[in-house]
Amino acid sequence: MAGQLRVHLGAAPGVGKTYKMLEEGHRRRERGTDVVVGYVETHGREQTEAMIGDLEVLPRRTVHYRGATFTEMDVDAVLARGAEVVLVDELAHSNVPTSRNAKRWQDIEELLDAGMTVLTTVNVQHLESINDIVRQITGVPQRETVPDEVVRRAEAIELVDMAPEAIRRRMAHGNIYRPEKIDAALGNYFRVGNLTALRELALLWLADKVDDELEDYRSSHNISDTWEARKRVVVALTGGPEGETLIRRAARSRGAELLAVHVARNDGLSGGSHAHLVAQRTLIEDLGGTYHQVVGNDIPKALLAFARGVNATELVLGVSRRGRLQSLFSPGVGVTTTNGAGSMDVHLVTHGQVRKGRALPHRASALSRNRRLAGFLLATLGLGALTGLLIRLREQVSLDSDVLLYLAAVVLVALVGGLWPALVAVLLGTFMLNFFFTPPFHGVAIASGENVLALAVFLVVAIAVSATVDRAARRTREAASAQAEAETLSTLAGNVLRGAEPLPALLDQLLETFGFNGATLLHRRPDAAPSPDIQHDAEAWEVVASVGKSLSTPGEGDAEVLVDEQVSLVLCGHPLAAEDRRVVQAFANQAVVAMRQQQLSEQAAAAGPLAEVDRMRTALLSAVSHDLRTPLASAKAAIGGLRAPGVEFSADDQAELLASVEESLDRLTRLVDNLLDMSRLQAGALAMHPQPTSIAETVAMALDEIGPPGREIEVHLPEEFLEVTGDPVLIERVLVNLLRNALRYSPPGRPPMIVVSAHAGKVETRVIDRGPGIPAEMWDDVFLPFQRFGDRDNGTGVGLGLALSRGLTEAMGGSLTPDTTPGGGLTMIMSLVQVELA
Known about the structure:
CATH architecture of the largest domain: 3-Layer(aba) Sandwich
Number of helices: 26
Helix content: 40-55%
Radius of gyration: 41 Å
Keywords: ATP-binding, Coiled coil, Kinase, Membrane, Nucleotide-binding, Phosphoprotein, Transferase, Transmembrane, Transmembrane helix, Two-component regulatory system
Strand order of the largest sheet: 3-2-6-7-1-8
InterPro entries: HATPase_C_sf (IPR036890), HATPase_dom (IPR003594), His_kinase_dom (IPR005467), HisK_dim/P_dom (IPR003661), HisK_dim/P_sf (IPR036097), Histidine_kinase_KdpD (IPR052023), KdpD_sf (IPR038318), KdpD_TM (IPR025201)
Protein name: histidine kinase
EC number: 2.7.13.3
CATH superfamily of the largest domain: P-loop containing nucleotide triphosphate hydrolases
Shape: flat
Structural class: alpha/beta
Enzyme class: transferase
CATH class of the largest domain: Alpha Beta
Number of domains: 5
């Protein structure tokens, strides 16, 4: 008998998986179970090592590979020991080559096959199905993975959870990594965002596992009643206008999972409006729900089957739109669904369409006019010819054969001309059979009861066959029309709006689909005065977009689709068919959305330069009034002192005053250079020469530029060679500004630090100081020109340097963002695009 597997699942290293596993091992041993430690990796953590305590630890197997020595779990020793419970850490671990199994989970399967119970640990980032998502979030590839199915087969999975802030505190206290690795870890993998995302992945993965287990249990025990283990609300959509009311009503259930379902007939034809369903699907997804479509002719049965399949707790339907007369003959979907819902709550929501009846689709003829005319001719002339032929053969052909031949003629007429020509053929055929072939001949009386029965059967069968043939032809045409509408709406929703100019592309698609000569989207001018002839008043309308023949007023077109009181889509070429109006209405609605997006983009583009000009003007005024005046005042005071009559200065005093003058002029030069660069940057005239640049070399040049103070800065560079795309001179300029700022605010004995790392195609350079820091709500103000936060002297200006640094970084396609230094201080993060090495 195979043993049982128990997995301790964690969101990240350091949450306490191994500690929990050892704790469970002690509990089982205290209950008298034979427990041994097959393999535990403590990573030097004192609390984990202490937790092993007096548990029996089996010796590891030593492996020599390529001149190095490794230790692995000794599977043979564990099997020989034959304990009831074995503790094996790191389920996803890859064994050293030459081992019996490539993966540790394969070693564990041997132990399970031997009947042992195994307690193990794994982090969510090692699960195969979400390995790529973890890499996208953290930028760190996980080469050691375990198939999800191995973990899902576990008898029990325990989530070892810990809040991101608590993990970071454990890290800062040295409970996870050694002190020299703490800062780099907190700034890279153990960022709050990374830990939060990993925690959510672990919870979602485990929730799916719990859902599967619950569904398996309900299925194996034949339980069809709803269990309210998780609140799920299903909204039934008919494709009518009341759908939005139902969705919003269902969305008011706090904490519930929202699902919308539309039941389509299994013949492929939908009784609802495609345009309404598209809009309602967008609404349900905007509210965080999901949209589903199922097929079935019995709508109540299909709704209940779907609701029970997803273990829904509530079902929301609209009150019937059927009229009172229709309700007399059938109770309706709402009543029928409620009667069969069992323990599930069913909410019937009233709306504005109650008792207004269903808007029946236009029943266009299934056949062309020419075919109907051909059917009438065939019904008259064909039956006349058949009658003449059968009169000649009256002696050779019986009445039964006559009936069958007339029936075949009726079917032929139905195939050619549809229902109405077939009904004419039925009446003519019945009369001719009675008049010419049923005794007494040439009269309407029928002598034999058997002949009456034959004619009656002929009449009923002929009418039934005619109706069936006509319905089949009509459904074929409706199905083709529905398929064309679905394909059109799919193109409209998926492909048209992906172009660079969505509005013209959408109108082009409209012309191509419906064969119009021109399509114009008109917007009524806000200052247009109401008038009876406004449909032909060109001054009252403005053209938003036009394709093909352009129109200036709605009255010039062959068809018009109103979107609202201000917007109209005008078409020319031919009148708009009634059955096409709802799809064209969807085009019009989407055109208005594209129009408004285009207007917003234009407004944003127009406002951007104005805002930048205003910001630049403010920066220049601040510079003239403050930072330029300060070094000038210092230089002037020193020079005035040297030139003062009657004052004798020693050589040392003169040298000090001259050094002050030189320092002030250097500061003034830097400020002027920054102002000029900022001006060029805003005007788009800053010369840049982007190229692959080694970040390590740029850091070294920046430290040289700073001079002796730069020797105190701690530098942590990765072992791999990293290159970024950017101008090396500008990158150095940014680093110099950031490092000078960090040196200015770092307390004595705690110099700044540079940490370089790569994440998800980006190279991040972190300049970390241990100064007073800046509150998070003031981070945006840091990058406004000439902002000061606790400067120690009036000659120190940091705002312009940081504003320029952010502008230079963004001009190179990167970003410059602040963050809090763990333990106090400010961290500036320069992120640039990484160059992939061939």
